[in-house]
Design goal:
The protein is of the alpha/beta class. It has one domain: 3-Layer(aba) Sandwich (Rossmann fold), CATH 3.40.50.620. The strands form two sheets. It has a six-stranded mixed β-sheet, sandwiched between helices. A two-stranded antiparallel ribbon has the order 1-2. The protein is globular and about 45 Å long.
Length: 173
């Protein structure tokens, strides 16, 4: 895979991650891009469990920002795909490869350790750049200048719309 003009071999067959990804931000995108540095293929698991925004809308935002539009996208030689599952271990059943690395935010160390213990997978923790909570606050406080630094331009309207859906669902309960 090309990297800074040099060819390097990915250490893993597949890099996987799992999350809600309710309000996507550049921290998520950074994590997805790091996955491609580690493996030939990248699988992004999206939670279909309760208390989340509609899964098809969240998957569409991920595919839009990663350039897939429903088609496998090659970034540094590694294609991205998405998969839906109610919880991480149901998602992990989709993975059929020998050399697997789980890539998660640094706040997900318990899940990473469980996957290592149960499945024998390596893991790579990524330093948190931003949080969905921060994105919510920026939208709610109409801090648009700051928000454009945190959410990629091409998905900013989608993320703002999803935040509106969150607010509506909270008022209906």
């Amino acid at each position: 895979m090309p990297y800074n003009g040099f060819m390097i071999e990915a250490k893993y067959d597949i890099a996987v991650t799992f999350g809600r990804f309710n309000l996507l931000h550049i921290g998520h995108v950074d994590m997805f891009e790091r996955m491609a540095d580690l493996a030939h293929n990248c699988l992004i698991g999206v939670s279909s469990g309760p208390n989340n925004l509609p899964i098809d809308q969240r998957v569409a935002v991920i595919e839009k920002v990663m350039g897939t539009n429903g088609v496998v996208y090659e970034h540094f030689g590694g294609p991205y795909e998405t998969a839906k599952a109610p919880n991480p271990f149901a998602f992990f059943e989709f993975v059929n490869a020998e050399r697997v690395v789980l890539v998660l935010g640094e706040d997900q160390v318990k899940l990473a350790e469980a996957a290592k213990r149960v499945l024998g997978w390596d893991y790579h923790l990524v330093k948190r750049l931003y949080s969905s909570t921060e994105v919510r606050a920026l939208i709610d406080n109409e801090e648009w200048d700051r928000l454009i630094e945190v959410v990629p331009n091409e998905i900013l309207p989608d993320v703002a719309r999803l935040r509106g859906q969150e607010i509506l669902s909270q008022t209906v309960k």
